[in-house]
Amino acid sequence: MDKILEGLVSSSHPLPLKRVIVRKVVESAEHWLDEAQCEAMFDLTTRLILEGQDPFQRQVGHQVLEAYARYHRPEFESFFNKTFVLGLLQQGYHSLDRKDVAILDYIHNGLKLIMSCPSVLDLFSLLQVEVLRMVCERPEPQLCARLSDLLTDFVQCIPKGKLSITFCQQLVRTIGHFQCVSTQEKELREYVSQVTKVSNLLQNIWKAEPSTLLPSLQEVFASISSTDASFEPSVALASLVQHIPLQMITVLIRSLTTDPNVKDASMTQALCRMIDWLSWPLAQHVDTWVIALLKGLAAVQKFTILIDVTLLKIELVFNRLWFPLVRPGALTVLSHMLLSFQHSPEAFHLIVPHVVNLVHSFKSDGLPSSTTFLVQLTELIHCMMYHYSGFPDLYEPILEAIKDFPKPSEEKIKLILSQSAWTSQSNSLASCLSRLSGKSETGKTGLINLGNTCYMNSVIQALFMATDFRRQVLSLNLNGCNSLMKKLQHLFAFLAHTQREAYAPRIFFEASRPPWFTPRSQQDCSEYLRFLLDRLHEEEKILKVQSSHKLSESLGCSETSLQEVANKAAVLTETPCTSDSEKTLIEKMFGGKLQTHICCLNCRSTSQKVEAFTDLSLAFCPSSSMENLSFQEPASSPSTQDGGLMQASVPGPSKEPGVCNPSTAAFACYSAVNERMVDSPDEFRCSEDTSVPNDSNKMLVNKDVPQKAGGETTSSVTDLLNYFLAPEILTGDNQYYCENCASLQNAEKTMQITEEPEYLILTLLRFSYDQKYHVRRKILDNVSLPLVLELPVKRTTSFSSLSESWSLDVDFTDISENLAKKLKPSGTEEACSPKLVPYLLSSVVVHSGVSSESGHYYSYARNITGTESSYQMCHQPETLTLASSQSHLLGRDSPSAVIEQDLENKEMSKEWFLFNDSRVTFTSFQSVQKITSRFPKDTAYVLLYKKQNSANGLSGNNSTTGLWVNGDPPLQKELMDAITKDNKLYLQEQELNARARALQAASASCSFRPNGFDDNDPPGSCGPTGGGGGGGFNTVGRLVF
C-alpha cells in the first residue's frame, strides 16, 4: 500500500483523481496490516509531512498517518519512540534542519496520536530536557511560538522543579533576542502573534508555579538594564508586562529602587527600555509600570536618573501619540514625565515644535477618539505653558492651534502641578525615609527664617500674593540693574518657580533691611513694609531721572552728575505726579490720596491739603467703659526720608529720621489722625512748643483710643475705617492756629479719600502705651475681617486748583448751614456723598504675642486679580453721610453685607494659604476669621485689600493676548537660567542626602511628624508652647523668630 501511495502522490494524474485514490487508501487503514507494512506506511507519511514538495503531499501525509496511527496504535507507538523523537530534535530529518518548525509540528501531532499510550510518559521526560536545550539555543520567534503551542497543549513537557525556573529565565532571554526586520503589516502581525504565544506560555507557567515569577522578572530587569553596547534587548519583552500582577508593583519597585547593587547606569538603561516598550502594540499596563518606576525613583530622590531619562525619551514618547494602538499609554507617560519635570522647561520645549502638527492632524480626521485625545493633550499643554510662561514666541502657535478646546481652570492647573512634582510624590517608600523636602501640596514656596526675620517673610508673602503687583514686578525689564526692585523681582521669580520647599531670601534681606533694624532681633512688620515701599518708590524716581538725562549707570559718574540726579529727584518729590505714566509702580499699586480739610469755627475760613499715602493706620474706637485711657502707639518707625512717598501713618516733623528704633520711638503717644500727617503745616501746629517730640499728638483730644473691655461687641474693620474718617472738633489743647484770626481757634477737621489705591493696606494700631502704669500693651481685641470692604472715595473737582498744596484761607458765606448739615447723620447733599469702591480681602498678616517686643508673624493670603468673574459686583448708587464720630460711614445694611455672605459661601472652593516661614499649608477663610477667638494672642495686624475693578488695565491686557499664559509675565532669560540652575542644584542636593541617609540608616524606623501640627497649636507656633506664649494661655512672651 505504501508503494501505491508513493507512486500516486508523485504521478501526473489529475488532482481530483488523486484525492479519490487517497480517500481509498485512508479507508484501507481499517484493514489488518503486519508490523512491517505499518512501519513502511509510517516512514512514507513522515517523509511526505517533513519533505513534501507541495502542500498536497504534506496534506496527504497528515491524513494517512493519522488514520493508520489510530487503527494501528501499538505499531505507531513502536515507531514514534524516544530514540526517533530525540533524533528529530537533535539531528533533524534527512535534509531538514533540526530547528525547522516542521519537526516541532510533527512531534506535536505525534504526541496527540499516542496520548493514551504508556510510552508517552517517556517522551514527556525526554521533551522536558530537550525543550530547555532548545530555549537555551535562542530559537527564532516562529520556532519558539511553535514550541509554545506544543507546551501549552502538553504541559507535561514543561521542565519541573528547579529546571522550571531555569526554563522561564531562559525563555525570557530568548524573548529578549527576538527581532523582526520586516516592515510589512502582514509580517508584523504574524510577529506579534508569535510573541504573544510565548508570553502566554510564561503566564501559564507563572500561574502554575508562582515560584518562577520573581526569578523571571529579575531576568527581565537584567536584560533591560544591561549596559553591553553590543546587545539591545527586544521590545517584545513588553508582552510580559501585562501578565505581571499589579499587586506586585509596590514590592518590585521598592526592591529595584532601594537595591544598592543596581547601579545608576543600569537603572537608566532599564527605564529607557521600559519606555521603549510603549511602542509594543496590545501590551497592557506598560504605562502603569513605567510611571510606578518613575515615582519610585523620585521617592528615593534619584533625580539624576529621572532628568537623564526624561530628556532622552520625551520626544520618543511624544511620537508614539501618532499610533492609535499605543496612544493611551503614551499620553499617560508623557503627562507624568512633563508634569513631574518642573525644575526646568527643557523637557517641555523638546516637544513644543511638534505639538502644532499633531493637533492639526487629529483635528482634521474628525474622529471622536481623536477629539477626546486632543482635549486631554490640551489640558496637559495648558499646564506646562502655565508653569513655564516665559516663552510667548514658542507658545503663540500652540495657543492658536488649541483655542477651540476647553482650558482648565487655574485652580485645577495648580492642583495638577502640585501633585505631580518629583518632590511631592506620594509613595509608600517615603514612610521609611525622612520626609521629602519638596514643595508642599499647595504648590507655594515658604521663606526660610534667617533669624528673627518672620516680620519680613510675612510681608513678602503678602506682597507676592498681591497678584497684580507680582505680575508688574516680574514684567519689569531690569537687566543690568542692581536695584532693590531687581532683587525683589528675583525673589518673586524664585517663589513662583523654585522646586525648593522654602527659599532663603538672604540677598533681599540684606538689601531691604532698614539701617536702624538690629540684625537677628525683633522688628515691626508694618514698619518694614513702609520702609520697603518707600525705598522702591524713591529708587524708581531716581532711575527715571537718570533715564531722562541719559546718564551712565556705571560707577564712574561724576559728582556733578550725581548731584544733578539727586536734585532732579528732589524736584519730582516736591511735585507729585499727576499722570499715570509718571507714577512709580508703588504709586500705581499702593498709592492713594487723602484730603484733610480744616474749618475755623470763628472766621469760617478753611484750609486743606491733599497728601499721598500707601497705607492707613486704623485706631480702635473709644470705649466709655474704660477708666484708664491709653494712646495708640505707631505701627511703624517714625522716620520718613526726605521726598519719600507719604504714608497715612507717618508722624509729624518733630520726629527726626534717626529716631527709628521701635524700642525708643515706637511707643510714643500717637493717635489715629496725627499719624497720617507728613510735614504738618503751620496751620496744624498745636498750642504747645512743637519742638517737643510727640506734641503734635495732642491735636486729637476726642480720639484718645482706649483698650476695649472684655465682652464688648467685636469691632469690624469697617468700624475702624469709619472712625478714621469721622469728623473731629479741635478744642482745648488741640486748638487750631488760624492764620486769618492770627490766634488759636476751635476748628473742625475732616478727612476724605480722594483717590483710592489698587491695593489698600490697613494697619490696625494694636500697640499702645499705658500712661497710668507706664507699660507697653497690646490691644488684643478681636476685629472682624470682612471679605468685601467698601471704601468711601470722594472725587471732587472744586479744589482742583489747590492740587497737592495748602490753600489760602477761603471764606464761606453760609458755613454755619454747611457745618450743621455736615454734623448731622442724615440729609447730606449729593455733592458730599462719596462713591463706594469695593475691595476684596487679599491677605492678612497676623501677630502672635502679647507685645511688640515679642511674638511671631505669619500671614494668610489668597490669589485675587482685578478681573475675577466670581467676584464681579454691581452696586446701586447710594448716598452716604460723613457723620459724627459716633456714626457709621458704612452702613451695616449696605449691599456689601449680602455680597460678603455670598462670597463666604463660595470660599469653600477658593484657596486660602497659611504662610508660616518655611511652612505653607491650605486653610480657609473661616480659619482666618476665628484665629483670635481660638488663640487670643494671635491677632490681625496688617491687611491687604484688592480693589475690585470691572476691567483692570494693569493685569488684564497682556493676559488676553496669550503672552502671559498663566497671568504672570514671561521671565527674562537671566532669571529663568538662574532658577533652572538652582532647581538642578536642589535636586542634586536631595539625591545626595537621600543616598547618605540610605547608607547610614538603611533600616531606620519610620518616624517623622506629619506636615501640620496638632490642631491645638496656633498657626503661629513652633510647637506646643508657641503662639506668643502657649497659644495665648502662657504669660511668658517669646522673641520674634
TrEMBL record:
One GO CC annotation: cytosol
UniProtKB keywords: Hydrolase
Region (Disordered): 631-656
Pfam families per the UniProt record, alphabetical: UCH, Usp38-like_N
CDD domains for the chain: Peptidase_C19H (cd02664)
Single GO biological process annotation from the record: protein deubiquitination
USP domain location: 445-948
GO function term, MF aspect, one: cysteine-type deubiquitinase activity
Superkingdom, natural source: Eukaryota
UniProt feature, compositional bias: Polar residues: 631-642
Name of the protein in question: Ubiquitin carboxyl-terminal hydrolase 38 isoform X1
Organism: Tursiops truncatus (Atlantic bottle-nosed dolphin)
Encoding gene per record: USP38
